[in-house]
Amino acid sequence: MTDVPAAPRSTRAWLLSDRPQSRAQARLGRAYISWLRFASNPLALVGLAILLVLVLVAAFANILAPHSPTAGDLAGAQLLPPLSPGYLLGTDDQGRDILSRLIHGSRLTLTVVLLVAVITAPVGLLVGTVAGYAGGWVDGVLMRITDIFLAFPKLVLALALVAALGPGIENAVIAIAVTSWPPYARMARAETMAVRHSDYIAAVRLMGASPVRVVLRHVMPMCLSSLIVRVTLDMAGIILIAAGLGFLGLGAQPPSPEWGAMIASGRRFILDQWWVATMPGMAILIVSLGFNLVGDGLRDSLDPREAGQ
Amino acid sequence: MRPLLHVDDLKVSFPTRSGLVEAVRGVSFTLGRERLGIVGESGSGKSQTGRAIMGLTPPQARISAARLEFDGIDLLSAPPKLRRSLRGGRIAMVLQDPKYSLNPVMSIGRQIVETLRTHENVSRKVARERALDMLAAVQIRDPARVFDLYPHEVSGGMGQRAMIAMMLVAGPELLIADEPTSALDVTVQLEVLSILDRLVADRGMGLVFVSHDLRLVSSFCDRVLVMYAGKVVEEIAASELGNARHPYTRGLLNCMPTLGTNRHPLPVLDRQPEWRL
Amino acid sequence: MSSTTMSESVRAGRPFHVRAWPVAIGVLRFAGVVITTFLGLLAVTFFIGRVIPVDPVLAVLGDRAPASAIERTREAMGLNLPIYQQFFIYVRQALAGDFGTSVLTTHPVMSDIARVFPATIELATLGTLIGTSLGIPLGVLAAVKRGTLLDQLVRIIGLIGYSVPIFWLGLLALLVFYAKLGWVAYPGRIGIAFEYSFTPITGLYLIDALWQGEWEVAVDVFRHIILPAALLGYFSMAYISRMTRSFMLNELGQEYIVAARAKGLSEARIIWFHALRNAAVPLVTVIALSYATLLEGSVLTETVFSWPGLGLYITNSLQNADMNAVLGGTIIIGSTFIGINLLSDLLYRTLDPRTRA
Ligand SMILES: Nc1ncnc2c1ncn2[C@@H]1O[C@H](COP(=O)(O)OP(=O)(O)OP(=O)(O)O)[C@@H](O)[C@H]1O
Ligand SMILES: [Mg+2]
């Protein structure tokens, strides 16, 4: 019992030591300092809380949702206002509980965001580091392609793609992914160019490391922290585009409880039953706000140069 | 002759996360129409002293003085408007690096004219004439051409001359030069210094010359203040420098290389904690 | 609309940025970049229209068309030719402004677009004007009063702008300002009373009505456009104020600001002239990007407000699988993007003497 309060203090001291004994300690110490900086920003913590709730809600949707997300009570519970008994956020025109639909919809949102991130971040990282490290014509060609995609209207291109591929959540993910990778490539290239001529890369090369190894083990890790910040900040945008596609009927198809599509179906009753369209919009706003807050906080804590800007 | 500037027990400190940083800790001196040098190592508070006189102390800093007076005007209690009219009008300051101290998107001529028209009610045409004269006075050969150039189009030495012109065009009585030549090449340094020297002498200005180069200061000024850790540790006539008493001043003098003597090992500046007191 | 997309080209480097080269080479490189980007745009739309669909003919005719019709159409569309020749023909047609015929309206896509595009331009322009005229002062004040309540407020307004779905906010705005308060008109660009009596010249109704001295029409047009324009203006403001703040903080920390103070200039002149004039250089790119994004955002906004512009045209065509119209609209918006980028780059050069040759 007596040494319980002492333990965290010594862990803290170990983490904050300015003479780390091992690489792991140095790395953990750095992460801990970043975390301290992140945690000193209340807005960032609010954002983190939002995302944690989102993940928990998505994971336990089956337990948390009071009603079925797809089957409604057409006879007895059509278009009930919020705070009706048993229906906290009211019901839609099919008598479905809006809260339950939102809870299940969080899974779709999370899936889209994660899939897009998992597809685009590695592609962008690869294209950018290869272009930056190889230089010459490889760089020229890759960056030309990147710039072409960067000069595109993102949403309109995604629309055209989904129109050709056919509506559906998988195609929406593909369309968003195709339009989202170029900024990551640009960024990774800039970072690579910055470290390419540094002495430690030269040292690694002198020791006989192959270009592949240099890029994979030494260049890519340098790009990771800014990439993470960017991806987090972009997730809000991805959510908004996905919702936009859903709103236009090009994303997830009915009766699936996708938030954007829910707004579209509530649009018809907006004058009299405002809650049908309002609730899913609130959900989108809160979740993308969460990603933006966390992204801002991460940027400030990982990159103190930009702090406060 | 009545002194131009009275500084008595000037203190400047910055509240920071790791506590109060005392940049200037009680500096006192008076200045007539003469040339005063301030030397000291980096961080000794030279610039903050100069900026306090100019009224350019950052807003978060705390500033106090028993007396801070320019030509009978109490600077610390002067209204901001009066303070502003003094800046550039009667007290001017030349900054260290012309590359960063000139507005990159304004032509040099416009920047000079701007100072003039801020302090004097003159027509555009007259202002232009005076700016061209001023450029000629800092020995720029083709003033009309340089007038329309942008800062990135001129060399460092030329930029520093333009900056001197910009600061002196309104005819100030006191000039604070904060390491005005340390960003320049040695040969250019001498040129710019001699221009500065002439202007100060011709116009009878008071000069506060900040530098960390003791030799430069002693050849250029009448009197020298030696600062260490925010305090004046010694005040001495430039000609008397050889008889400096304070060990820190002697240390600074010792660090200067002299021809014909072999100096191994190189001397290291000695710093004693008790000098801070 | 995602506002993060707007910032990304700025952060990641401007697409058309070409370093200081001798003028002739600079112009050539510049033209090369623009042309490859345009060809890239066409390649992508070509790919979407001709390669992704299992059979483009069925996409045009529907799957119940007789076999002879299918064969005829296949030849007419040049689908028997090798793919590079098809692309060559496609580029030639696109350059001539021929994007095929819209299945929905039965008009050539190009003439449809020419009819609806001014509505979108008018909306996006007014939105950008609103966003710029509010965003720049707010951003400057937030930077000058850094850390104060005002700064926090600007930050929160910006964050919400980055996070809110535009179509949803549009619906709520309609609910409040049209249905409940009755302050604005809806739907469309102009009331039925004037729809047939008013003959536009430029297609920008607000300007046309004022030009012709039709005050009643102007008021009616204004009541129609103000809500969607204010909405777009909010998004543009969120982005512009945030970037202005960050550029201004950067400028205010520069040494030339100290020099300007040493000259005795007023704080107002230092902030609004010296610092802002320098911040304006990167801001040009930001405003251009924001304009481009509003054009794109029109797809969702116009749907909500029944605004008869290019965005609504594209979504209507989408719903009817009218690929010619969708891709034609995509090319036009993409080309406008390229044009705006080009313009902003030229403007950047005139604003920054350091990039002039
Ligand atoms: N904005 C600030 N916040 C906190 N401390 C500051 C600030 N500006 C200056 N200081 C501190 O004040 C002290 C004196 O700074 P000053 O610029 O006057 O030094 P200096 O003698 O001019 O040195 P140098 O030769 O390097 O120019 C330094 O220790 C510096 O760290
Ligand atoms: Mg200094």
TrEMBL record, chain A:
Keyword field: Cell membrane, Membrane, Peptide transport, Protein transport, Transmembrane, Transmembrane helix, Transport
Major localisation: membrane
Top-level taxon: Bacteria
Protein name, as recorded: Peptide/nickel transport system permease protein
Transmembrane segments: 43-65, 108-135, 155-179, 227-253, 273-295
Organism whose genome encodes this protein: Ancylobacter amanitiformis
Annotated InterPro entries: BP-dependent_transpt_permease, MetI-like, MetI-like_sf, OppC_N
Gene3D superfamilies in the record: MetI-like
Places the protein is found: Cell membrane
The keyword Membrane appears for this protein: yes
PROSITE patterns attached to this UniProt entry: ABC_TM1
Taxonomic lineage of the native organism: Bacteria, Pseudomonadati, Pseudomonadota, Alphaproteobacteria, Hyphomicrobiales
Residue ranges of domain ABC transmembrane type-1 in the record: 106-295
Family: Belongs to the binding-protein-dependent transport system permease family.
Record membrane topology: Multi-pass membrane protein
UniProtKB/TrEMBL annotation, chain B:
Organism: Ancylobacter amanitiformis
Gene Ontology molecular-function annotations: ATP binding
Main location class: membrane
Metal-binding in keyword set: no
Localization (cell): Cell inner membrane
Record domain ABC transporter: where: 5-254
Highest taxon above the source species: Bacteria
Cross-referenced SUPFAM superfamilies: P-loop containing nucleoside triphosphate hydrolases
Name of this protein: Peptide/nickel transport system ATP-binding protein
Pfam family, one: ABC_tran
Membrane topology of the entry: Peripheral membrane protein
UniProt keyword terms in alphabetical order: ATP-binding, Cell membrane, Membrane, Nucleotide-binding, Transport
Similarity annotation: Belongs to the ABC transporter superfamily.
